[in-house]
Amino acid sequence: LDIQVTILNVNDNSPVFMQTNLTAVVPEDTKVNAIVVPRGNLSASDADPDIIYYELTTIVMGTDGYFAIKGVNNPEIYLQKALDYEKFNLTTLVLYARDRPVGSLEVTNTATATINIYIEQADTKPPWFLPCTFINMDKSICISSRYTGTVNIYEISMKPLILEPGPIYAIDPDYLLNEKIMYSIVGGDPDKVFSVDADTGNLTMNKAATSLDSYLLQVMATQANNIQKYSIASVEIKVVSKNNHPPYFKTRIYNGTVFAGLDPRSFVFQAGAPSTPLMITAEDDDFPNV
Q1: Residue 158: CB partners within 8 Å, gap ≥ 6?
Q2: What CA–CA distance (Å, rounded) separates 57 from 74?
Q3: ∠ CA 223-224-230, rounded to 5°
Q4: Do domains 16-120 and 128-240 have the same CATH topology?
Q5: Burial class (CB in 10 A: 0-12, 13-18, 19+), 84
Q6: The whole model's pTM is what?
Q7: Positions of the chain with pLDDT lower than 50, given as ranges
Q8: CA 145, CA 276: separation in Å to the nearest integer?
Q9: Contact status, residue 129 vs residue 170, Cβ threshold 8 Å
């Protein structure tokens, strides 16, 4: 008697990942839609001839929505939203592999793989002049105030000029890279009265100013390795007359006379000269014509 036996396959095997723990380093400036973990590193196998269904989740708060898989049957991970190193530099993803679709009433076997994603800071920001004020909540843009200073007309200062709110100084906000900053004057000084030290940002004088007009300099800070990363700051230098003397009153005591019953805002007259209004005046030897 010949007996034919048919073996029915039972779903008794779980999917298996080649690696259950992976690490990937993703540059901050990676383009959206770029593949960050290829399919070959993530695919699972199943001893049962089943179609495998994948699902990706994020377990680090605030990092949801940045990474996704190409499809329910394609575990390839791609970048879904632009990265910002200031927001986060590490996240952990969990990839699920199931031998039945999500929501299936059949017995489902599941495997998981953990993917640690490290964000590598990239050169994405131009220099910031300090001090500066953040204009957005994520602190990615910082705007500096105008630098101001004064010089005496017809005089050359032999030392770096003192400015407010502080010396000219810029930093690379991509602080892990901390690229060297170079300084230059790119406008506002047609007569070349001023110079800026390329390395320190110190502002000095080449020659004396011969006019009381103010200078509105434009100082550029660039990264030494990439001149396309730059910022411009305004530096206002006021030219003033030399001021070595304090003002003084022509006399220490003034004597005046008033009459009872005068209306408000009536003149006070000089004592001894009731028809001459009392005038209090001061002089300054630095300003003989004022």
Answers
A1: none
A2: 15
A3: 25
A4: yes
A5: middle
A6: 0.68
A7: none
A8: 51
A9: yes
Tell me, what amino acid is at 123?
D
32, 80 contact by CB (below 8 A): yes
The residue extents of the domains of the chain are 16-120, 128-240, 245-289
39 SS3 class: helix
Distances (CA, A) of 82 to 27, 74, 79, 95: 11, 22, 7, 21
Q: How far apart are the first and last CA of the chain?
A: 133
The first and second tokens of residue 40, run together, are: 């070959």
**Assigned CATH class of 128-240:** mainly beta
- 41: three-class secondary structure by DSSP: helix
Q: In this structure, how many other beta carbons lie within 10 angstroms of the beta carbon of residue 125?
A: 20
Around Cβ 103, how many Cβ atoms within 10 Å? 6
Question: Cα separation of 81 and 43, whole Å?
Answer: 23
Enter the tokens of residue 224. Answer: 């030494």
Instruction: Give the bridge partners for 111, in sequence order.
Output: 97
Q: Determine contact, residues 15/109, Cβ cutoff 8 Å.
A: yes
The fold adopted by the segment(s) 16-120 is Immunoglobulin-like (2.60.40)
Query: What's the pLDDT tens digit per position in 102-125?
Result: 888 888 899 999 999 999 999 999
Return the residue matching tokens 């000084």: 189
Which two tokens mark 145?
């105030």
pLDDT tens-digit series, residues 214-252: 999 999 999 999 999 999 999 999 999 877 889 999 899
Q: Which H/E stretch holds residue 29?
A: none
